[in-house]
């Protein structure tokens, strides 16, 4: 009795392992910073290769009668072809008018050829698994598997590129230039024709490369152990722009206490630990900043510094899952600086904690203070109307 094509067989595990191996080996051979350049990220490589595997298995059936040495020759030829396509695709990304469609086809072609080579190498030493017959017409099966190999990675790349663009814009806003440079490079590989803040990603990448080179040159200049506070502050700022936060913390330490104490150093310390994902240490630094500024007389500096510290406490408390402290921090933030953005932060906090009435109140206040935030405020209200019967508690406007 002929087994069903969908029956599990151990040989599938062997081919799956060879697939993973192909991803690793191909990335090592064709890599730029560890990943095939035209793919940009490991997850994109994996998605494209796995999506191409069914088609490669289907095509490999045509070679099942060949001798072992013939399969190996074709497999090696496929690897060489994949490398040639990768070089061609990499050159495309440097052209002034890049085609996303062409890059998508190149990525799918590389994945299909490499997977076909993997299957043929496996078939040279064992019986290959038979791919399922989707429809009776062979050409239609090929078309369906081809569409799968092409469109699944394309959709995934589009989603990944959009996420990188958002992260890149956030990095630019927070002046994390080294991180932004890496993100711009990835974004340009995935979508060479993309834009960031209405500028070509290629132009943004060039500007960021120049900024990072200048910052690195500044850091290479020696600084005296007893340098002035201004000189230390300048060096700390440059290090934070480069995301060299451990080095920044070492320079910050003398400024957080003693004779050279500078209040702003506590804020910078909290931010460094935040970027290092050390949330407990970040929380302690921001709490120390609050304790200091609350003991000072009223001033604009006190107000802005407290707002910054409370915002840092709120962020750290959220990551540490300290809900009571998070709510307190954002309430204090709104009291110190009742801006639309801060009301929206408090609204989001209340929404996540299922306090829908309070979330709706602050979301509405944010919208009233800044109509430009209307879409974000309405998004919060809309989501609450569907969660936990929140619509019963949301005031009607």
Automatic annotation (TrEMBL):
Keyword Membrane attributed: yes
Extent of the signal sequence: none
Which InterPro entries does this one have?
TPR-like_helical_dom_sf (IPR011990)
Q: Which UniProt keywords apply?
A: Membrane, Transmembrane, Transmembrane helix
Instruction: Please give the start and end residues of each transmembrane region.
Output: 12-30, 42-60, 72-93, 105-126, 138-161
Name this protein carries in UniProt: Tetratricopeptide repeat protein
Q: Which organism is it from?
A: Novipirellula galeiformis
Native organism taxonomy? Bacteria, Pseudomonadati, Planctomycetota, Planctomycetia, Pirellulales
